[in-house]
Specification:
The protein has 117 residues and is mostly helical. It contains 5 helices and no strands.
Length: 117
């Protein structure tokens, strides 16, 4: 039962609570600060969901440098999503590759997954 809980129930609970939290925030907090809080909450919930997908086993890589890079990319993509970081050359590359919306959501989940992998 413990393996079932860690593998299936915890990711499901993260999805449900995260969705409820984002819904409450978007309903009751309005304006620019509300949009900022919703985007940060979405990124953190997706990151936590990615962490919960990591298989139950000993970590392969104990490197702290990898975690620093992943944390940097997480903060960078949050700032990119909020519009605080705008690099015209990178924006044109991201537009060409289609890195926005759904793909950015997948990046958040992947970063969470690879943080403890």
């Amino acid at each position: 039962m413990h393996n079932f809980t860690k593998r299936y129930l915890i990711p499901f609970v993260i999805i449900v609570i995260g969705g409820f939290l984002v819904r409450l925030e978007s309903t009751y907090i309005t304006g620019f600060i509300g949009n900022t809080i919703v985007i940060i909450t979405k990124a953190l919930v997706l990151f936590a969901f990615g962490i919960s997908l990591t298989p139950i086993r000993r970590r392969r890589d104990e490197s702290w440098l990898k975690k620093v890079f992943i944390s940097f990319f997480l903060v960078f993509f949050i700032f990119w999503d909020l519009g605080y970081v705008v690099l015209p050359q990178l924006k044109s590359v991201f537009d060409f590759l289609g890195v926005y919306g759904f793909v950015l959501t997948c990046f958040y989940i992947y970063l969470g997954y690879s943080f403890f992998d």
